[in-house]
Amino acid sequence: MTAQRASLSPTVRIAAGQGFWGDWLEAPYRQVTGGPIDYLMMDYLAEVTMSIMQKQKSRDPSLGYATDFVPLMERILPTLAERGIKVTANAGGVNPRACAEAVAAAARALGLAGKLKIGILTGDDLLGRLDGLLARGHQLRNLDTGRPLRDVRDRVLSANAYLGAWPVVEALRRDADIVITGRVTDTGLTLAPMIHAFGWRPDDWDLLAAGTVAGHTIECGAQCSGGNCLVEWQRIPDLANVGYPIVAAHPDGTFEITKHAGTGGRITVAGVTEQLVYEMGNPAEYITPDCVADFTTIRLAQAGKDRVRVSGVRGRPATDKLKVSIAYSYGYKAVGSLVYAWPDAYKKAKAADRVLRQRLKDLGLGFEAMLSEFVGADATHGPLALASAPLGELPEVQLRIGVRSPDRAAVERFTREIAPLILNGPPSVTGFAGGRPKPEQIVAYWPALVDKRMVEPCVEIVDV
């Protein structure tokens, strides 16, 4: 790290605003108004989210992105412009351009024309290129099973490569105030501002790994600042006013995890550690498009109230592959439930389950899978719940039973066999939750790898 590079910016503050599509809408507003930040990072995309967005786009070409991102941005755009806060968000889904156009229209309506630039990042969507890739010998084998994608090609719904931080960096270097992307890694949305602020090079592996760890720590929003926290969860203060995390990063790759003063929640070594092990995989090889981070080298220290310092992160060169998230249709499912009341609630629910299964068998219906859960008895911990302690008398138990099959008709018939149990099965059904269930399409996940040379990110800058 040269003195010139380090002097670009002493500290950059990157605030987490969303951890998934559907996260708390108040969080971004509180982050941009609650104290000084430089960037607002918002992560929207999960594997199944891409297939949902692809379906939306197929029905309406103007959709295919996180639609609630637009009114959220409309709410905070004046503050962003006033305070010079930049945004990195993968809310663009499978239609980043339409998302950017909607945000630009909202900005113009607020009188911000000429005051903002929007970066649009595309190139991750491979759905229209799959046949060409397969023809060129890229088999896109399932990482878990080894099967080639040709086995399910006719059922593919979406296919997106995970882009890394560098295309986002390019947008920032071209003066984008808001960067809207498709499938960019969760970590890349945080790493990119650090690369841009500190002038890190593509082969600064330790620094890139540190930025990747920073991104992983805050990618799930309040999950590292008190939400969904196991350690002394009952003593976490004021979760109703939970403060979302902020990375305070330094040019040498060290950083602190903190939050705005006066907010609820808690940032501790234990809580940050819980987030670090979330979806970690091999701790010595956390692979991203930008580098391979070694999580075993991370050092955490409590640096004050609601402040955890992270240091020591080591990294290795990036691989020559990109991960591809592919979603495909995998038949149909349906889930129905009945609630049985005391006395003998559990015994009644078990009896109803036996009766239903026998009737389905007598109808000659076979299912790829059938699962029964007894909510109130074993739905959360399965067999362990009944094995660890004698089952006491429960006031009520919900029988929840689901089936899976490639045959929609079989699943449809299953849905018609639940309601009759109300009158011709065990006594005291108190609730037929949700009415007769409807068959739903199952979207399955197919992880694969593709040569990086086959994916060409495209960055476009548009003025508001």
Protein architecture, described:
The protein is an alpha+beta fold and 464 residues long. The protein contains 14 helices and 19 strands. Strands 11-12-8-7-1-2-3-6-4-19 form a 10-stranded mixed β-sheet, sandwiched between helices. Strands 5, 14, 15, 16, 17 and 18 form a 6-stranded antiparallel β-sheet that branches. Strand 1 (12-18), helix 2 and strand 2 (39-42) form a beta-alpha-beta unit. It is globular and about 70 Å long. The relative contact order is 0.14.
SSE blueprint:
Elements: H1 3-6, E1 12-18, H2 26-33, E2 39-42, H3 47-59, H4 69-83, E3 86-89, H5 96-109, E4 117-122, H6 130-135, E5 156-161, H7 166-173, E6 178-181, H8 188-198, H9 205-218, E7 246-249, E8 255-258, H10 269-276, E9 286-287, E10 292-294, E11 299-304, E12 307-311, E13 314-316, E14 321-341, H11 345-362, E15 369-375, H12 383-388, E16 396-405, H13 408-416, H14 421-424, E17 429-431, E18 440-451, E19 458-463
Parallel strand pairs: 1-2, 2-3, 3-6, 4-6
Antiparallel strand pairs: 1-7, 4-19, 5-14, 7-8, 8-12, 9-10, 10-13, 11-12, 14-16, 14-17, 14-18, 15-16
Helix pairs in contact: 2-4, 4-5, 7-8, 8-9
Main pleated-sheet profile: 10 strands, mixed
The total of helices stands at: 14
Question: SS-based structural class?
Answer: alpha+beta
Low-confidence stretches: 1-7
Terminal residue distance? 36 Å
What share of residues is helical? 25-40%
Structure characteristics:
464 residues; 10-stranded mixed β-sheet; alpha+beta; Alpha-Beta Plaits; 6-stranded antiparallel β-sheet; 2 domains; 25% strand; disordered N terminus
